[in-house]
Write a structure and sequence with these properties.
CATH topology of the largest domain in chain B: TIM Barrel
Strand order of the largest sheet of chain A: 1-2-3-4-5-6-7-8-9-11-10
Bound molecules: flavin mononucleotide
Keywords (chain B): Oxidoreductase
CATH class of chain A: Mainly Beta
Distance between the termini of chain A: 50 Å
Shape of chain A: elongated
CATH architecture of the largest domain in chain B: Alpha-Beta Barrel
Helix content of chain B: 25-40%
Oligomer: heterodimer
GO biological process, one term (chain B): glutamate biosynthetic process
Order of helices and strands of chain A: EHEEEEEEEEEHE
Number of helices of chain B: 15
CATH topology of chain A: Pectate Lyase C-like
Number of helices of chain A: 2
Number of domains of chain B: 2
Distance between the termini of chain B: 72 Å
Protein name (chain B): Glutamate synthase large subunit-like protein
Radius of gyration of chain A: 18 Å
InterPro entries (chain B): Aldolase_TIM, GltB, GltB_archl_type, Glu_synthdom
Largest sheet of chain A: 11 strands, mixed
Number of strands of chain B: 16
GO molecular function, one term (chain B): glutamate synthase activity
Chain lengths: 235, 448
């Protein structure tokens, strides 16, 4: 934050999510950089959803569903855990969760970065379309289901059916993978992938602490890209 | 007996085809045996099911007087989204254009839909694959679909939309996802969907970040937050359990509910799905209306009915059963020029006929509507096709008004079930109106 940063405080025990979001939506691009400290989120839903300005929102506690949904430009820091669909369909910006995230974290998101300090539950990165997700813990089953583009980096383990029906997204997992989903295979980790992974470490602020070669890469075998009788059992 | 005289040939029976193994069924068995993959096609259920044709209006008589055909006013306008949205939608006619994806339809077709609907003061709807400039630019009122695939979904387009339609299901395939075959994944379609070009694309059947009505309530809250509670939020369901689906949509906070019956069109779905899953439109309307009535929400949460709507009589019947508006897909495409006999020789070359062409997924539509082929697309002039759609919508509206006036109604929404009788016991039971000439409503003991 530079010297011109204005800090505002919003207490969700006193004002509503509607009031908070209406205020944040009124901030237009080019308006002064500002920092919004949100207290007492208490697991409320749709906190800081639909932002479209380069502001920073720090939420002090756990959030409910869809925090930072459809985010553009904003940086949202959650000092707690996040409910279902954190940063769903994000376009750009950064959403960071200090705790764990529930299901469908980063679902369908087109861009920006989602950093999860703890674990993410099932379907992390489902239908992702370009976002970069870094999970410092483990991810649950069906993560990166139908993942189209972007990267999912997992420092821990991945549950069952990782990358089922995956398209062109890239998955990097350091720990074990319970099982791979249909059409998802392990792929060679070349230098370009290590370089890409290193960029993700930077995003998560752990560059230099982890060695990219400890990770395995997974992606699409591209065998289900065309309907074919021999694949019938996989449909 | 003289050995040289043959006995008369025993009379033979005529060749007889099986009703069970009819010619179509056998052709399908042969097709399946040859290819090993299910049949995919466009359009809705082709089998005959109880429909609005099985209902009749009673018109005026001694105890009901009609309105003067061309003199007395018969309103057709409808307001959608009055429950929570700050900016409800006002339409001049109760006939909307259903969601049809860009990808399944060409850009010029989307433009033509926008032009025709706008000329008549009604809305169009996007579809799987996102919002195009052709459609936004030419539609005064545009409903933006929120589908499981979320292809092309972005907050800028949501803000440009006039309403949002959360698609839970479609009548042609309740419980099914989408598919768009490689031939139609042109560079533009691929880019909008973030997919490789030319692949056979599947779209999910379930939303990625919510399951069930309790989650949907939170999802709707999020969409309202993102759009500052301005835009009406519709929930579209395929007709399966319309009573409960309607009630649960109300609970989840919908402003408008769209119920799509099994005759409803699709761009591409398995034939077995189209013909065997879901219930007819006729069977769904009264259940949906009953759910709204039981919750005290009829006319507060608006109901749009679709699936096999073809003319003003269908519109009037849907409204009389309690719908607020209808939506059309297939009929709108036909109005634009789909399946037109002028392309007969080309349909024959594709192994079909004008009127039966349903391989919309293959992208070779001679009429240039269900295609992404730049040459075929040019065949559709969006201005002229838009005009045809506007004409057709005008005719449907006049027809619905004609019936409403005959029943003595000064607004099409004043039509009511009491204006209707049924021709068949099935239709009487489904629509909960008496069998014609009787006062018998099968099953009228409050149970479905
Ligand atoms: C070519 C085509 C594409 C369609 N695409 C979608 C879609 O993307 N999303 C959706 O909810 N319904 C889609 N539908 C279904 C329509 O929205 C609508 O429910 C149906 O067409 C209504 O029935 P009707 O065709 O008998 O009028 C499509 C239908 C057609 C014919």
């Amino acid at each position: 934050m530079n010297a011109g940063t204005q800090t505002h405080a919003v207490d969700l025990a006193r004002s509503s999510v509607r009031e908070l979001n209406a205020t944040l939506h009124a901030l237009k691009e080019g308006s002064n950089a500002s920092l919004w400290r949100v207290a007492n989120p208490g697991g409320l839903h749709a906190i800081a959803a639909g932002l479209d300005a380069p502001v920073t929102v720090e939420v002090d506690g756990p959030v409910g569903y869809y925090c930072g949904g459809m985010n553009k430009q904003a940086t949202i820091l959650i000092r707690g855990s996040a409910g279902v669909g954190v940063a769903e369909n994000m376009m750009s910006g950064l959403v960071q969760v200090e705790g764990d995230a529930s299901q469908a974290a980063g679902a369908t998101a087109h861009g920006g970065a989602l950093i999860i300090g703890g674990n993410a539950a099932a379907r992390c990165g489902i239908s992702m379309k370009g976002i970069d997700i870094v999970v410092k813990g483990s991810v649950g089953h069906m993560s990166a289901f139908m993942a189209q583009a972007g990267t999912l980096t997992v420092f821990g383990d991945a549950g069952e059916a990782l990358g089922d029906s995956i398209y062109e997204a890239r998955l990097y997992v350091r720990g074990s993978v319970t099982s791979l989903g249909a059409d998802c295979i392990e792929k060679e980790m070349r230098d370009e992938h290590k370089a890409q992974l290193f960029e993700r470490f930077k995003l998560a602020g752990v560059d230099g602490e982890i060695d990219p070669s400890e990770f395995k890469r997974y992606g699409s075998a591209r065998q289900l890209y065309h309907f074919h009788v021999d694949n019938a059992s996989a449909y | 007996m003289n050995e040289h005289i043959k006995p008369p040939a025993a009379p033979r029976t005529l060749p007889r085809e099986s009703a069970t193994f009819d010619a179509y069924t056998m052709s399908e068995i042969r097709r399946a045996a040859a290819t090993g993959i299910y049949d995919i096609r466009g359009a809705g259920a082709k089998r005959k099911v109880p429909h609005f044709d099985d209902l009749l209006f009673l018109g005026a008589s001694m105890s009901r007087y009609p309105l003067e055909g061309y003199r007395e006013r018969c309103g057709t306008d409808v307001v959608l989204g009055t429950r929570f949205a700050k900016k409800p939608i006002h339409l001049k006619i109760p006939i909307t254009i259903a969601g049809m994806s860009f990808g399944s339809l060409s850009g010029p077709a989307k433009e033509a839909l926008g032009r025709g609907a706008t000329a008549m003061g009604t809305s169009t709807t996007t579809g799987d694959g996102g919002m195009t400039q052709e459609e936004r630019g030419h539609s005064q009122t545009l409903v933006y679909q929120y589908l499981p695939s979320r292809y092309g979904m972005n907050p800028d387009d949501i803000r440009k939309a006039d309403a949002i339609e959360v698609v839970v299901g479609q009548g042609a395939k309740p419980g099914g996802g989408g598919m768009l075959l490689g031939q139609k994944i042109s560079p533009r379609v691929a880019k909008m969907r973030t997919l490789p070009e030319g692949i056979d694309q599947r779209s999910a059947c379930r939303h990625p970040d919510w399951t069930g009505p309790d989650d949907l309530e939170i999802k709707i809250e999020e969409l309202r937050e993102i759009t500052d509670w301005e835009k009406p939020i519709y929930v579209k369901v395929g007709a399966a359990r319309p009573y409960y689906d309607t009630a649960l949509s109300v609970k989840a906070g919908a402003d408008v509910i769209v119920v799509d019956g099994m005759q409803g069109g699709t761009a591409a779905t398995q034939e077995v799905f189209i013909e065997n899953v879901g219930i007819p439109t006729l069977a769904a309307v009264r259940q949906a209306v009953k759910a709204l009535q039981d919750l005290g929400m009829h006319r507060k949460v608006q109901l749009i009915v679709s699936g096999g709507i073809r003319n003003g009589a269908d519109v009037a019947k849907a409204l009389a059963l309690g719908a607020d508006a209808v939506a059309i897909g297939t009929a709108a495409l036909v109005a634009l020029g789909d399946n037109d006999p002028q392309w007969e020789s080309e349909y024959e070359a594709l192994g079909t006929r004008a009127g039966a062409y349903d391989d919309w997924h293959e992208g070779r539509d001679p009429a240039g509507i269900t295609t992404q082929d730049p040459e075929l697309m040019k065949r559709l002039d969006p201005v002229r096709a838009g005009r045809r759609l506007a004409n057709y919508l005008a005719v449907m509206t006049l027809e619905a008004q004609t019936i409403a006036r005959a029943c003595g109604k000064s607004h099409v929404h004043n039509l009511e079930p009491e204006d209707l009788v049924a021709l068949t016991i099935e239709a009487a039971a489904m629509a909960q109106v008496p069998l014609a000439g009787t006062n018998w409503v099968p099953g009228q003991d409050g149970r479905f």
